[in-house]
Every structure is written in structure tokens, then in C-alpha cells.
Write a structure and sequence with these properties.
N-sulfoglucosamine sulfohydrolase activity; SGSH_C; 4-stranded antiparallel β-sheet; glycoprotein; alpha+beta; 22% helix; binds calcium ion; 508 residues; 5-stranded mixed β-sheet; globular; Alkaline Phosphatase, subunit A
């Protein structure tokens, strides 16, 4: 059987990422204490910083096979470093994709740091070969390692960043209270990290997510609208100034870096900012390629040796993968340049450095999402905003059936849903295929009341105020990030005279 997506092959049962109200979370978690909002009213910002010790873990040894986006991730993730040189000269060309001439990039490889059964998944090989080996080994870990070893020439001691990106990873770790899987290394990292419970990718697709992470710009602004590889062939715009380009310009070298144990052995761990997260949600229904919570919620650990104050604590701040570029620039004290990708429209980062959060809990309650494609056939633009417990999704092509990608189609989960549906049998799913394919233009959910996002409140007059507030926030962000879709689907962006939306009178 060919597996696509993730499958447990050991003990335990498959488990999707826990919602905030997951009963496995300890009763002192903020989700249990968050005041229930009056319908139509926004809740007050969550509680401040708190320290929570995670319960002891029951370590069993299930094995997890990963495929899916790994082989089709296409978009390079940074490998960097002044520490080792990239293995493949051919990757230099792909640096241009990020807008960084001469920047060395690779898809990364499986890291031995996190994998007790990672034989054959060499971290030095990187790229597709590494991915294929990991897939075929059957012992694969679920982490795709991206390392960014960075050395700053402006300081007495070098500063480094290690960025570890799981491919299609979810919350399968002890740090997020999953006791069915053994992740001792991640748990150890969590003990010296701030653990984010409300971290999101801005786009639920592999190459676009990586491009967004490494530019700090949403997909509609950096140009990586869909997958990079094969016939999909999406690329970021030539003039995008990516993180590797900015780091290289500052004299910071990028290349294949070292994993944690090696950093410790080299005596540079205490000079290294370590970030662990995932590129997109788990490859299950409502997951990858969707802007629903399972498609965008990500684990995120940020460990700074210079910010031990909140090690082991949990942050409720709403943060985004769009925050990682400003975080890494902040770590190296590099300002973001003033420039335009097109015309005179100056690029502004809408993400924020996470370093201050390592000192004190902020009242950050809003993150945005933007998706246009996955595969080239999957034009289904969506924009979204999380604001506190409310989540708004704008489906621009809501008259179309939601598109399905090839990997997801052949997954046992989706095949089972198809077979049971066509046979008229119950699926046990909380949705049906018709609901999944055909979506309302606006979807508004209260995740406090409805963690599975099944009860659309957009047409409920009690939530009109909330709907309008989130719509206003969303369109403001779209203008700020120069979204070409900002006027769709009932208007057209007309920029010949002055940028404005012109009505189409298309009955929407
Ligand atoms: Ca992925």
C-alpha cells in the first residue's frame, strides 16, 4: 500500500491535532478559563503569562511514516551556514527563486537530532534524495530538518539560528501533550523554549508556506502562489528580498547547518536561536490546503539562550510563520530594507519579531491567512483572519467545488470517505463531502464554542458586528500586503488611475 500523508504504524491510534479545548490539556489551560463571550461580542484578550508544567509522558514507540508534501515541497528551505557548504551546486540556481543570488538553498534532509530511527536519512544529503530515503526506510521521523547556521561578523561571539521545519507536521509531540508518541528531544527543547499554542501558517501549502516563511510576505505578495515543482512551476517574484538574501548581504553565511547536539558539541548552542515549527497542517480532511484550523495551526517552539525567562512556559499570543523573518532579522539586528517589488509600492512586513514575547506575554490576538493554489489546477483563493476566538474565512471561488490534490486523493482517509459516500454508508466524519466541496463565501466560526468549525455564524445577525470587524481587518491587511485579489470576487482591482475596487455587477 502506498501511503500518502501520515500514518501510525506502531502502537497508539492516529490523532489529529488537538483543538484548544482538547480534554488532554490540563485543566489550568487558558482554554478552560477563557470567558465565554456573549454572542456577537468579542472576548477579552486572554490571560497573561503563566507557567505550566506538562504532565509526565507515557513514552511508547509508535513509528510515523511521512510523505505527502515532503517530496513535492519544491520550494527550498534555507540551508545556510558558514558551517558547512551546500552539497549540490545545482541548488544555487534555486536560490534565485528566493530572490537571493548566490544564496545556497536546499530542500533540507531528515535530521538525526530528532530521529531515533532515521537511518539512511542523512542530514548532509538533503534534498529529494534524503526525502526519498526517509520515506523508504519505514523508520522515518516526522521531521524535515532545515538548518540555518548563521554567523554574524559584527559581534564578538558568533550568533546562529537553527530553524527546524516539520513537513506537514502537527501536534504529535509531548510538548503539546500528545503522550502517544515519544519525542524526548522535542520535549527537551520545549523545556528551554517558549511554547506557542496559537501559532499559524499563513498558507496551507508546502512551497508557498516556505516562501512566506523565508520572505515574511504572504503568498499573494511574494508570488509563490502554489507548488514550485513539476508542472505547477510557481516561483517567487524576482525582486523579492528574501531572508537568505538579506542575511547574505549582512555578511551572514547560509548553508547546511548543524543540529542541536552538534551545536552543543561545537560550543555554540548558547549563541543559537532555535525555532521549531511546521510548514502547513496535517494532510487530512480540513487540513493541508485548507485555511481551517487543522490546515493552518502549527506547533512552534522558540528557544533563545539569551531569553531564559519564559523557558518552559506557554504563550497564548497569536503568532504566524510570517513573524519568523522579522524575528531572525531582529536576532541579527538587521533592518528590513525599503524597496518595492512592483512600481512604487513599498514592501512592509506585517509580521512581528517574536523576541519580545520571550520576555513578556503580549496581547497579540490577530493573524492572517492567504491561499491561492496548491497544485496548479487548484485555483481556490481564500483569505482568513483569526481574531481571538473568532475565525473568518473568505472563499473567493465559493461557487466552485473545493479542489482536491493528488496526494490527498489517494490517501486511505479520502478514499474511504469516497467509497462510503458513494455506497451511501455513514462515514463517521463530522462533515460530508458535499459540505466539504461547496462552501459559503464567508465562514465565521467561534472556536470557543465550536472547535471543529462546523457552525457557520456569518449569516447570524447576532454576529454582524464581529463579521464586519473581521472583514475590515482582513481587507485592510490585503491592501497593506498588495493583494491582487483584494477586490475579488465581486469587483476588479483597477490600478491604471488610482488603486481601487471597481464593481463588476456580477450578481455577487
Ligand atoms: Ca508540507
Amino acid at each position: 500500500m502506498k501511503w500518502v500523508g501520515m500514518k501510525w504504524v506502531g502502537e497508539g491510534s492516529p490523532r489529529e491535532a488537538p483543538p484548544l479545548s482538547d480534554p488532554t490539556l490540563p485543566p489550568d489551560s487558558a482554554a478552560h478559563h477563557r470567558s465565554r463571550p456573549v454572542p456577537g461580542r468579542l472576548a477579552q484578550p486572554g490571560p497573561g503569562p503563566r507557567t505550566r508544567r506538562r504532565p509526565p509522558l507515557t513514552h511508547r514507540t509508535p513509528q510515523l511514516r511521512v510523505s505527502g508534501c515532503l517530496r513535492s515541497s519544491g520550494f527550498p528551505v534555507v540551508s545556510a551556514a558558514g558551517l558547512q557548504k551546500p552539497e549540490r551546486e545545482g541548488e544555487r540556481e534555486r536560490g534565485r527563486v528566493l530572490g537571493g543570488p548566490g544564496v545556497h538553498v536546499t530542500e533540507g534532509g531528515a535530521g538525526r537530532l530528532w530521529c531515533s530511527h532515521d537511518r539512511g536519512a542523512g542530514s548532509r544529503g538533503g534534498g529529494r534524495a534524503g526525502a526519498a530515503t526517509m520515506r523508504s526506510s519505514g523508520q522515518g521521523c516526522w521531521v524535515l530538518l532545515i538548518s540555518v547556521g548563521l554567523c554574524c561578523v559584527h559581534r564578538a561571539r558568533p550568533r546562529n539560528v537553527l530553524l527546524i521545519l516539520a513537513d506537514d507536521g502537527g501536534f504529535e509531540s509531548g510538548a503539546y501533550n500528545n503522550s502517544a508518541i515519544s519525542t524526548p528531544h522535542l520535549d527537551a527543547l520545549a523545556r528551554r523554549s517558549l511554547v506557542f499554542r496559537n501559532a499559524f501558517t499563513s498558507v496551507s501549502s508546502c512551497s508557498p508556506s516556505r516562501a512566506s516563511l523565508l520572505t515574511g510576505l504572504p503568498q499573494h505578495q511574494n508570488g509563490m502562489y502554489g507548488l514550485h515543482q513539476d508542472v505547477h512551476h510557481f516561483n517567487s517574484f524576482d525582486r523579492v528580498q528574501s531572508l537568505p538574501l538579506l542575511l547574505g548581504r549582512a555578511g551572514i553565511h547560509t548553508g547546511i547547518g548543524l543540529v542541536l547536539q552538534e551545536l552543543r558539541g561545537a560550543g555554540v548552542l548558547n549563541d543559537t536561536l532555535v525555532i521549531f515549527t511546521s510548514d502547513n497542517g496535517i494532510p487530512f480532511p480540513s487540513g493541508r490546503t485548507n485555511l481551517y484550523w487543522p490546515g493552518t495551526a502549527e506547533p512552534m517552539l522558540v528557544s533563545s539562550p539569551e531569553h531564559p525567562k519564559r523557558w518552559g512556559q506557554v504563550s497564548e499570543a497569536y503568532v504566524s510563520l510570517l513573524d519568523l523573518t522579522p524575528t531572525i532579522l531582529d536576532w541579527f539586528s538587521i533592518p528590513y530594507p525599503s524597496y518595492a517589488i512592483f512600481g512604487t509600492k513599498t514592501v512592509q512586513l506585517t509580521g512581528r519579531s517574536l523576541l519580545p514575547v520571550l520576555e513578556a506575554e503580549p496581547l497579540w490576538t490577530t493573524v492572517f491567512g492567504s491561499q491561492s493554489y496548491h497544485e496548479v489546477t487548484m485555483s481556490y483563493p481564500m483569505r482568513s483572519v483569526h481574531h481571538q476566538n473568532f475565525h473568518l474565512v473568505h472563499n473567493l471561488h465559493f461557487k466552485m467545488p473545493f479542489p482536491i490534490d493528488q496526494d490527498f486523493y489517494i490517501s486511505p482517509t479520502f478514499q474511504d470517505l469516497l467509497n462510503r459516500t458513494t455506497a451511501g454508508q455513514p462515514t463517521g466524519w463530522y462533515k460530508d463531502l458535499h459540505q466539504y466541496y461547496y462552501r459559503e463565501r464567508w465562514e465565521l466560526y467561534d472556536r470557543n464554542q465550536d472547535p471543529h468549525e462546523t457552525h457557520n455564524l456569518a449569516a447570524d445577525p447576532r454576529y454582524t458586528q464581529v463579521l464586519e470587524l473581521l472583514q475590515t481587518q482582513l481587507v485592510k491587511w490585503q491592501w497593506e500586503t498588495h493583494d491582487p485579489w483584494v477586490c475579488a470576487p465581486d469587483g476588479v482591482l483597477e490600478e491604471k488611475l488610482a488603486p481601487q475596487c471597481r464593481p463588476l455587477h456580477n450578481e455577487l
